[in-house]
Design goal:
mainly alpha; 10 helices; 78% helix; G-protein coupled receptors family 1 profile domain-containing protein; receptor; transducer
Amino acid sequence: MEGNHSEHENSCFYHGDPSFHKAHEQFTINLITAIINIVTVPVGVIANILIVTAIFGCPRLRTPSNPLIASLALSDLFVSLTVQPGYITYRLLENQLRLVPCFVRIMYHLAFFSCFGVSFMTLGAVSYERFVAVRLQVRYNDFFSSTRVVKYVLIIWTLNILLTALKWTSIESAVENIHLMVWSVCFLVSVATQIGVLYVVRIQREQVQPQLQGAENRQRQREAKLAKNISILVGVYLILNFPVLFTLICDQLLRLNLQTNNHYSWTETLAFLNSCTNSLICYWKNVEVRQKVKNILKKLVCQ
């Protein structure tokens, strides 16, 4: 995203034309961040394809929480396929021509808001699902099942695509503010529920409940372990995404004057790293997913 839009030019549909008169000051940062994205794109594409294929290709992995993880991986895959190439093109053209064509800006803008909207909403859903699993274990099936979770995922994707499509209209500025407010709410929900999850897990570990049967105890331990693993995934995602969310809120929502667009270059690149880290954390912490990925790679190598 770029701040400092020209007020008198609005030739790129309803998106203001950014000013490139300070592009020479960003040359080095643009080049460094473009190179970082060029290196991480192949990793993100390959890793997320493997995660999505492993989860949807194995019936045993279709638990209520895994479709949400797969949705997050699918969003990260689209970040690697669309958002990062758009960023690379944007920054290199800005360096070379001091101008970025309308088509490139529009595609980058729409891909960014669609993918990140899905990611923030999915993170909120993942966090809430784990909170219900550890806090309301008996009533878990009233809220979540594999079929219901797939419906939730479809709603999240549809809602974000429709909301992003409105950015082509004259209410583009209002839609962008709605995006940022929804992201902020999802961010706060994720933080609050993860704190709740870790608190409940700690309390349950400290409590001695000899009346529980062995199978029930093992189930509780599995839920606690999964909750902690997902907390790591969500925590890393939120840490890497908070800077770009904060920058967007300051620039677009609060209209604070950012002296340089280097803030965007670094914070967006940091957020894009999630397309790699999420899949690697999932591979590291989820034994079943890791085993399925290994099987997929063995089949590909042996063909």
